[in-house]
Amino acid sequence: MAGSVLLTIFATELRTGAKEPVKTTHKQSMAKNTILEKIGYGFGDMSSNLFWKIFSYYLPFFYSNIFGLSLVDAGVLVFVTRIWDAVSDPMMGIIADRTNTKWGKYRPYLLWVAPLFSICGILLFTTPDVNYGGKLIWAYVTYVLMMTVYTAINVPYSAMLGVMTDDPQEKTVFSSFRMFFAYGGAFISLFLWEPLTKMLGGYNEPGGWFWGMVVIATMCVVLFVLCFAMTREHLKTVSTVSVTKDFKSLLSNKPWWLLIGAAICSNLFNTVRGGTVAYYFQDIIGPEVSLGFFAINFVFYAGLFLGVGEVSNMAGVALCVPIANKLGKKTAFIVVNIALIVLSILFFFVPCTPTGFWLMLILQVVISVFTGIMSPLVWSMYADVSDYAELKFHTASTGLIFSSASMAQKFGGAIGGAAVLWLLSAFGYITNQEILAAGAVQPGQALECLRWLMSFIPAGVAALAVIVVSIYPLTTERVNEINEKLKKVRSVD
Predict the structure, then answer these.
(1) Cα 114 to Cα 118: distance, rounded to the nearest angstrom
(2) How far apart are CA 256 and CA 385, in angstroms?
(3) Which range, 245-254, 435-444, 450-459, has the best average confidence (pLDDT)?
């Protein structure tokens, strides 16, 4: 499904990209963005996600089981570095907005930072032969360095979307290519990492993790260099105001505030469901449930459930462009979230039976398709907010706006992950160690909390997103009007 829709987009882009680019009209501006440029842009987030998924799923395990930190020290480490990460995003956005080179504002960072990006990833998964205090210092230094370099390359990369085209529909296409390749990178990292470490030295050995990261890091630097080589910044924007005015303009930007709220809701939805899955399968479904279907048995487990979701996200990304073009971005956002409300509520009523397990898998596919539509839609809407800010406040703060998008993503993930743990604790959830020590069983209210975390609570978050976006003012007509006015004052290559 995803492949056929994406091939249709590719074919359309090949037809439009073959035309001779001229600078005057809307269609002629669109023609400059070729299919190779969109693929090249996708390579950037593919590289980022090769690292990010490993950081998200494997770094805590590495610190506690391979590197040798205590869980408490590892938790404090992650918390402290996340605070720095949130602060560094807008700082990098301001720096990038004021960069001017022959390659553009944001694109040069792909070339400059890519080698450091890969080196820091390797150092992060290196285990030095020192005492515990030395290891703790090494972990702090390498993690802070990695997050700083990640910000230095990812914020400019995200901001490029605002200067690669002046056409709102093209921005959605670019955003869709970005997210399709991002999910592809996530899929590769999730399924390649464990066999790679086993082959290169052992999954439980520091050497296996080091050499596994060398392979992944090499792939990352190649992809970022390809992203640099295959893309161009076609719009010239110049920031002529102070940093203080940039921030004041941002805080006065009503569409930005509303989109930040909607983006936090979107990430809350994904994080609450994703963070609950392991608990849900352990305590509600049970380990390794076999499904009988046409004499074929599948083991139903959390990894399969999440992996199916990852592939389904890619299908949603491919569907984003035709849906957004048909409905408009604002309407598409609302329709998608209404669908997520209904599907999430339905999940609560699915029984834990062989037939019910198949229904859960089907609902996971459909829900993930809709969340896949959401990702490129939100990033494309940030590009519209950037255009609105440029026209209204006369400030070229694309990097600052996109860095705030990254902050919203991180805040949504942090709030969602913490909320899962706090709610389980409030409803008396018993950990594995407590069950083994006391022979206890999971209380009914904790099991009910898990069912709500997979259904009604995400549905409530999606409902909040609908309310927020319903008053978002940048409709299709308004965005087109903004872009027509900006064409008169912008310089276009």
Answers:
(1) 6
(2) 6
(3) 450-459
For 361-429, the DSSP string reads HHHHHHHHHHHHHHHHHHHHHHHHHHHHHHHHH----HHHHHHHHHHHHHHHHHHHHHHHHHHHHHTT-
- For the four alpha carbons of 98, 402, 260 and 452, in that order, the dihedral sign comes to negative
Instruction: Determine the Cα–Cα distance for residues 94 and 89; give it in Å rounded to an integer.
Output: 9
* Dist. CA 141–CA 129, nearest whole Å: 16
From residue 244, give the alpha-carbon distance in Å to each of 247, 249, 308, 323, 400. 5, 9, 46, 38, 12
Q: Are 165 and 29 in contact, with CB atoms under 8 Å apart?
A: yes
The overall pTM is greater than 0.90: no
User: What digits encode the pLDDT tens for the residues 30-57?
Assistant: 446 788 999 999 999 999 888 877 776 6
* Closest alpha carbon to 458 in 302, 332, 345: 345
Q: What pLDDT sits at residue 31?
A: 43
- The per-residue pLDDT for 119 is 95
Rounded to the nearest integer, the mean pLDDT of the chain is 79
CA 340 to chain centre: 18
Collapse the DSSP code of 17 into the 3-class scheme (helix H, G, I; strand E, B; otherwise coil) and give the result. helix
Q: What is the pLDDT of residue 61?
A: 63
Smallest Cα–Cα separation from 126: which of 221, 208, 220, 218? 208
50 close to 187: Cβ distance less than 8 angstroms: no
Question: Can you tell me the distance from the alpha carbon of 11 to that of 191, in angstroms, rounded to the nearest whole number?
Answer: 30
Residue 93 has pLDDT above 50, yes or no: yes
Asked if residue 14 has pLDDT above 70, the reply is no
Nearest to residue 221, comparing CAs of 107, 361, 111, 340?
111
Q: Which position has the token pair 């390749």? A: 181
> Is residue 293 within a helix (H) or strand (E), and if so which, with residue range?
strand 289-293
What distance lies between CA 439 and its chain's CA centroid?
40
- Give CA angle at 51 (122, 260), nearest 5°: 135
Q: Are strands 296-300 and 289-293 parallel, antiparallel or unpaired?
A: antiparallel
Give Cβ neighbours of residue 341 (< 8 Å, ≥ 6 apart): 459, 462, 463, 466
Write the pLDDT tens digit of every residue in 50-64. 887 777 666 766 776
Give the number of C-alpha atoms closer than 13 A to the C-alpha of residue 303, restricted to the C-beta side: 9
Tens digit of each residue's pLDDT (9 = 90 or more) over 457-467 = 999 999 999 99
Residues with Cβ within 8 Å of 272's Cβ and at least 6 positions away in sequence, in order, are 416, 419, 420, 453, 457, 458, 461
